[in-house]
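Hi V.,

You were right to ask for the full record rather than a summary. Here it is.
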Amino acid sequence: MATMIGKVTRERYEQLVADGLEQLAVQGRTQMMLGDHALEIEPMNPRGGWHAGPGGGAVRCPAVAGPVRRGPGHAADHPAG
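Predicted structure:
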């Protein structure tokens, strides 16, 4: 009798896991590619310092001064378990 994992055979289980891992790899490559394209269109400015403002004038852009605030219902507010 074939070994069952859940409601599928071990062979089918291994096929499903392999397919899932491949899909995760594709998703990761896609996200990196989209990020690269976005940065090509609009590169990030350095943090803080002076940057060209509207009309070419320089404006001061301060670095982030404090912690990033989370909205209500953030995952960190609900520990697992």
